[in-house]
Write a structure and sequence with these properties.
145 residues; mainly alpha; 78% helix; 0% strand
Length: 145
């Protein structure tokens, strides 16, 4: 959870990631040692796959945080926004009346749409945040204490 709190500062987040990886390695090593010392291996049959899934999900969460669409997608988004603005402006230019309210609302809607799309792509920074999704993990950790 500290890794996600440190984002978008990638250097600080990487330090937290390294700490969590060392903790995961220690947990895995101790689990293997405990399983080797067990006379009854049935506990290990349940324990080790669960630990493996825990480690896999942390890697999956990190990768989903770091993976973003290629830059060409963002370029196309801006090109389409400018193209729509051009077409809308061209259509409005044929009219003898200037409707500033329509022009302003159209420009604001295009700008807000582009901003929201980009903001959703980076959910740990910006206005739209997913920090509340971490609440489940916080509650789980507090229930373990």
């Amino acid at each position: 959870m500290e890794f996600y709190k440190k984002l978008p500062d990638t250097e600080s987040a990487q330090v937290e990631w390294n700490k969590s990886m060392s903790l995961q390695n220690a947990i895995w090593t101790r689990a293997i040692e405990a399983c080797q010392a067990q006379a009854n291996p049935s506990v290990c049959v349940v324990l080790l796959p669960a630990l493996n899934e825990m480690i896999d999900i942390t890697t999956t969460r990190k990768m989903s945080t770091l993976m973003h669409p290629p830059i060409i997608i963002f370029i196309l988004l801006f090109v389409f926004a400018i193209g729509c603005s051009f077409v809308g402006g061209y259509g409005m230019a044929r009219s003898n009346q200037r409707r500033w309210a329509h022009n302003s609302v159209f420009a604001a809607m295009v700008a807000i749409t582009v901003y929201v799309i980009i903001d959703i792509e980076y959910p740990r920074s910006g206005i739209i945040r997913v920090d509340t999704a971490d609440q489940v993990l916080i509650e789980l950790r507090s229930s373990m204490n």
